[in-house]
Every structure is written in C-alpha cells, then in structure tokens.
Amino acid sequence: MYLKRWKLNMINSALLVLLIAVAYIMFRNIVTPELKADEVTSVRMSIRATEDAVKHVTGADDLKRFIKVFNSIDLKYSPLGGNPVEWAMKVQVEGEKTLDILVQDDMLRVGKSWYKADSGKMTELLFLYPEFSYPASISPE
Predict the structure, then answer these.
(1) Cβ–Cβ contacts within 10 Å for residue 16, how many?
(2) In angstroms, how far is CA 48 from the centroid of its own chain?
(3) Considering just the CA atoms, what is the radius of gyration of the chain in Å?
(4) Which terminal residue of the chain has fewer beta carbons within 10 Å of its beta carbon, N or C?
(5) Which of 107, 104, 95, 88 has the alpha carbon at shortest distance from 67?
(6) What 3-state DSSP class applies to 68?
(7) What is the rounded CA–CA span in Å between residue 46 and residue 31?
C-alpha cells in the first residue's frame, strides 16, 4: 500500500517538474520588445475613430519621441493576449524590419505577442497621434 502511494507521489513529482521545465523553456525566449532609434525610419499610425486615416511620421525628433514613449512602457508578457478586433490604435514601425503594433486598453500586441502594460503609459502613447502634426492620409487598404 505504502509502496503504491510512494510510486504515485514520485510520478506526480516527475510530471510537475516536467511541466515546470516545459513552461520555462517556452517562456525564457520571450524578449520584451524595444525600439532602437537608428533602426526606425518611419512610423505609420491610425486610430480607431479614423481607421482609414494614417499619419506617416518621419521627422527625427518625432520618431525619437515615439520611441522614447514606447520604450518607457513596462511590458509584461501575456500568454492569454487580447482581442485584435477591439484595437484603439494601429502602428506600423518601419526600418530594418517592419513591426506591427496594436494598442488596446492596457494590452499591446507587438508582432504576434501580447503584453500587459500600464494604462497611463498606453494613454500617453495614444495621445501621440493628435500631437504629431502630420497630415492624415487615406490608407489604400
């Protein structure tokens, strides 16, 4: 009887260790995204209210401001994610690589990964759209 219980405890312990190891391997490679000023050439932004109107930000000072605000957001990886249909702002960062960002309440999708963020910082990011004095053009999409 005790031997049987001991075997079950050992199997449960081994499964728990295996589960923890798999979770560690899955999440250890998740890197919080950070933009680098020398790699960004432009930023395209659109907000939900004017979905088809896109501002194409190209000025060096404005790009640095966007990067500074984005990099100041403390992002926590969220495996559950958010709802990409309910976005507040879409951003496409262009440079060496193109990076798509969706802003939604206190959630941020960078590429295909979702992150939880401070809503105050997200509001600061959202307010960049009206502050940038670039004309909004109609998106061909």
Answers:
(1) 10
(2) 17
(3) 21
(4) N
(5) 95
(6) helix
(7) 26
Q: What pTM was computed for the model?
A: 0.75
AA letter at 70: F
Q: What are phi and psi of 112, to 5 degrees?
A: -110, 0
CA proximity to 93, closest of 64, 119, 134: 64
- Going across the sheet that includes 107-110, the strands are 76-77, 113-116, 107-110, 99-104, 89-95, 40-47, 53-57, 136-138
Q: What is the pLDDT of residues 74-114, one digit of tens each?
A: 888 888 888 888 888 999 999 888 999 999 888 999 988 89
Per this entry, what is the length of the chain?
A: 141
CA–CA gap between residue 98 and residue 44 (Å, rounded): 11
Residue 4 forms beta bridges with which residues?
Answer: none
| Cβ contacts of 54 within 8 Å, gap of 6 or more | 44, 45, 46, 136, 137, 138, 139
